Structure formats: C-alpha cells, structure tokens
Amino acid sequence: MMHMLTPAQWVQEELLAGRNLQPAQEQASAYAPANIALSKYWGKREKHFNLPITGSLSVSLADHGSQTKLQIIDAPEHAVYLNGEQQGADTAFVKKLDTWLALFLPTDVHLRIDTHNTVPTAAGLASSASGFGAMALACNELCGWQLDYTSLSTIARLGSGSASRSLWHGFVKWQAGAADNGHDSVAYVLPERWPQLRVGILTVSSASKAVSSREGMQRTVQTSPLFKQWPSQANSDLATIEEAIMAADFSLLGQTAEHNAMSMHATMMAAWPPLVYWQAESVAAMQQVWALREQGIEVYLTMDAGPNLKLLFEEHNTPLIKQVFPLLDVIQPFQSAHKNS
C-alpha cells in the first residue's frame, strides 16, 4: 500500500501542525542516554518511516550517552562536530543528519552541531540512538515545539530506530505500531525502577563496524531463513521481559534477554553473506560469563550488532564480576532521579 505522505510531509503537516518550523531561539542543548535493548529491535516493516516489525524494550545507560549543542550559523550548510572534530559533508553520519534535519528545518536555516559521545561511536553501543535522541530533544527546545517525549520519540525514530528509546532514563518500551505513517510507533518510559540492577560494558573493540546495523538488518530480513521465526519470539520475549521487570525477577530478565540476543545473532549468521559481528575476544568473554554462572554467580550477557558485550547483574555480585573482568565499565541505570526518567 502506498503512503499518502512522505516522512517530511507527515512531520510538518501532522506531527508539527500549527507549530513553528523556524527556530524560536539562537541555540539549544540537550543530553540523551544511550540504551541497550533487553528485547531487541531487528527488522523493519517499513524503511522510510523506520518502522519495526516488532516492539522492543531497553534500559538506558545513565551518564553514558550524547550531549549535543545546536547553534544557528550564517553558512551555506550545517557544520557538524563529533567529539570536537569537524565531520566531512560526505561522511555517513553527516549525510544521515542532513536528511533528518530536512524533515522539518527550513532550507535556509543552518546549524553548528556539537555532539560529544561518552560511548564509542558505531561499535554496537547505541551511539546513534543517543545522538539522535539528543538532537530531537535539542530541536524541540530550539524550535519551541513543546512536544511531549512520546511524540518526540517519533521524530527521533526517523533518525535512528533505537533513538526512540533514548529520550528517557530507565526502562523504555518502543511499541511497533500498525499505522503506515508510524504515528503509533512510539516509545514511553515504564514506571518501574530497579536500583540494584547493573549493566557492565565490556568493550572488545571501539572500531566502526564493517556492516552498519541498518545494512545488516536488511540483509538478515532478505536472506536469512531463520528470520521467519524471529518476530514471534521477539514479541514473546518482550512480554516476558516486561513481566520480569514488574516482578523484579532478575533470573527471568537475564535469561530472556540473553536468549533474545543470541537468537538475534543466529538470524544474522544464517544470512548470506553471513553476518558475524563477534570477534574472538567476544566469544572468549561469553565463555567466561557462562563459567561464572556455572559457579553460581548470576550474570547474563546481551549484545547488539557489534563485538562488545553488555553484562547484566545485580549490585551484590559486582566485586566478583570485576575480578573476572577488571576493565568492565559498570553502570547504575537507576543511580539518581533524572528529570526525564
């Protein structure tokens, strides 16, 4: 079925109807946390509106994310700085940003965009999610839209699917929705908090991925015979993880999240050409996690489209896990009451 509106028409005529597209102030800044999906988003039902086949659920990574400052400049194009370094107009990041800004920003308005990431860029640690999350929040302030966060999640999603989940701290659910234009494919924060929960980032490599998530997702959907089982499992896992959060059942949360991640990677490996984001060190670390569980230390792993592991455990096991993984970056997702939690 043909879409009645393009993404730009939908944003301007429906989402931002009656709101000013011209910036209301000279500059704005915002922070958005990175997030890791406990129940993964893998596969689009529609690529122009970045609509997922299934819903997903994530936990945000507190002070690991993106801080972005926008400033109006008198120049023929946007000037984009990532961690202090100007990015060329031909880089994938700048092209993606230009396309996204063109959804709503008048063509005669140009910005200096300064983004500082506290997560490795393009290494499977959701830096594009926090990047577009921070951009959406900053644009909301710059243009004075006064959109609520759930509405804003649709704009963030048009930049990066996972960005829809990076506007809040805590547990965030992104629902798949059914509408062609994605107006119901929105994210929202769950009320539950889990102060004892820890997420450990084990960085195997901070090099950029050879195959982007977007490209990898498309290849898996098109060529992997295992993918046809994925949507029903993903929906079931999403429901189970939500139940585990409500019941504060860590075993159920960890087991389901790890099984979900391994199943997603299995669909990739069965694609052609095969997609293997893991490195030898990734597999060695997985085996160490499983060995810890054999010893009765409850720790689980999850992985996105990259070589790095994210470990899930509770606070009382931190010292034992740090003995095995001394370089582990331990995050407390619920360490403080953030204003957008």
Indicate the topology.
Blueprint lengths: L6 H9 L11 E13 L4 E3 L4 E2 L3 E18 L5 E4 L2 E2 L5 H10 L8 E8 L9 H17 L5 H11 L11 E4 L12 E3 L7 E6 L10 H11 L6 H18 L2 H20 L10 H15 L5 E3 L6 E6 L3 H7 L4 E3 L10
Parallel strand pairs: 5-7
Antiparallel strand pairs: 1-4, 2-3, 4-7, 4-8, 5-6, 8-9, 10-12, 10-13, 11-12
Helix pairs in contact: 3-4, 6-7
Structure report:
The structure is a single chain. The protein is 35% helix and 22% strand. α3 packs across α4 and α6 (230-247) packs antiparallel against α7. The strands form three sheets. Strands 1, 4, 5, 6, 7, 8 and 9 form a seven-stranded mixed beta sheet that branches. Strands 11-12-10-13 form a four-stranded antiparallel beta sheet. The chain has a two-stranded antiparallel sheet with strand order 2-3. The mean pLDDT is 93. It has helices at residues 7-15, 92-101, 127-143, 149-159, 213-223, 230-247, 250-269, 280-294, 318-324; strands spanning 27-39, 44-46, 51-52, 56-73, 79-82, 85-86, 110-117, 171-174, 187-189, 197-202, 300-302, 309-314, 329-331. With 341 residues, it is α+β, with helices and mostly antiparallel strands. The chain is globular, with a radius of gyration of 20 Å. The longest helix has 20 residues, at 250-269. The protein has nine helices and 13 strands. The protein has two domains: 7-189, 2-Layer Sandwich (Ribosomal Protein S5, domain 2); 197-331, Alpha-Beta Plaits (2-Layer Sandwich). β2 (44-46) and β3 (51-52) form a beta hairpin.
